[in-house]
Amino acid sequence: ITGTTATAETSVRIALDTSSTDVWVPIIVNTTGSGYANISIPSSSVTSSLYGDVTVNSGSRLVLGGNNSSTTRRINVRGNLSTVNTDLTIGETGGGGMVVLYGNNSIGGNVVLRAGQLGFGTNTAFGNSTVVISDGTFFGQQGTIGGGTDAERTLANNISLQGNATLGLGS
């Protein structure tokens, strides 16, 4: 992928559907109305990484993970992610897979985990947002942060549990 700007009144889908697809360019999401950009992995057992910064403009919506049912799909967001006056949605109802946020992110709304698994690889992965964790989802630290001690796992974010969720990703 050489450059991506998602601009639409309807939905735009960026499918990372080959083995280990890495995106090294910035992504700008600029949707209106009920439209949204969906970055997902339709193939099974694939890990992809977004190394470029991801910007979601005001009034736009970005869904990471989509609505597939596989738990073996993973998107690593390694670049900085920012949203302007909008939530970041992880997964859609009935979906699976894992999204791991790294970087020094600035989320202008909530981070909403609707389906699948959400991991964090830095203490600043969620910016100043509230993390909303829906029923049946998984949330936790991915790997070690800093020295990997309990003190390194501290998040400054408010967490809203909306049902039964599993805390901890097991790695």
Quick tags:
globular; 39% strand; mainly beta
Description:
The chain has 171 residues and is mostly beta strands. Helices cover 0% and strands 39% of the residues. The chain has no helices and 19 strands. A 7-stranded parallel sheet has the order 2-5-8-11-14-16-18, with no helix packed on it. It has a 7-stranded parallel sheet with strand order 3-6-9-12-15-17-19, with no helix packed on it. Strands 1-4-7-10-13 form a 5-stranded parallel sheet, with no helix packed on it. It is globular.
Average of the residue pLDDT scores:
77
What is the multimeric organization of the chains shown? single chain
Span from first to last CA? Answer: 30 Å
The counted number of beta strands is 19
Spans of at least 5 consecutive residues whose pLDDT stays below 50 are 6-10
Shape: globular
Helical content (DSSP H or I, runs of 4+):
under 10%
H/E topology pattern? EEEEEEEEEEEEEEEEEEE
Q: Structural class given helices, strands, pairing? A: mainly beta
- Strand line-up across the major sheet: 2-5-8-11-14-16-18
Strand content: 35-45%
Helical segment count: 0
Sheet with the most strands? 7 strands, parallel
